[in-house]
Amino acid sequence: MYFPPCGGSGILSGCGFLFHNYIQWRYVMDHAEKARALFLEGYNCAQAVLCAFEDLTGLDRETSARLASSFGGGMGRMREVCGTVSGALLVLGQLYGYSDPSDPEAKKEHYHLVQEFARRFRETNGTIICRELLSGVRTKPGRDPEARTQEYYASRPCLRHVGEAAEIVDELLRERAGTESL
Question: I need a labelling partner for 22 at 20 to 30 A (CA). Which of 4, 11, 118, 131 fits?
């Protein structure tokens, strides 16, 4: 569902009450479960996380998938920032990002949200860097994505990280909405 701007910056700024009530009334999908299912369908890690939140971001599947497509494999398989982190930050940016470059408070608030997401992900996994998360996993060298096989899924922590990223986003959304009852 799309929430039009209600003042301030970000789609949900000034709409806490509306968002809170929407969450309590409408929250029926487990975003982590949906993200894992999307990853198993073949969406990359960033796409799986962003697409899992389309019920809140107002973005359709194609738009979400295109926006996040560059971030899979740690940004185009360069193994930099984990794609699940990038996908989660795209969700947070869509919901709580700022758009007014002359609003330093909105920028600061959003950066603190990003930093809190990263802190929680690091707390669980030790890093937000793809190559470090894949340490010890045999990956094929090169620039091309690997085929999704049973061996691929069995040898990587990516499916777990997709779910963890979505869970952290949900935690942050509950906290921002002022409820733990999702």
Answer: 118
Whether residue 145 lies inside any domain: the answer is yes
Q: Residue 24: which domain range?
A: 16-177
Look at residue 121 and tell me if it is in a domain.
yes
Q: Which pTM value belongs to this model?
A: 0.82
Asked if the structure places residue 182 within a domain, the reply is no
Three-state DSSP string of the chain: CCCCCCCCCCCCCCCHHHHHHHHHHHCCCCHHHHHHHHHHHCCCHHHHHHHHCHHHHCCCHHHHHHHHHHHHHHHCCCCCECHHHHHHHHHHHHHHCCCCCCCHHHHHHHHHHHHHHHHHHHHHHCCCEHHHHCCCCCCCCCCCCCCCCHHHHHHCCHHHHHHHHHHHHHHHHHHHHCCCCC
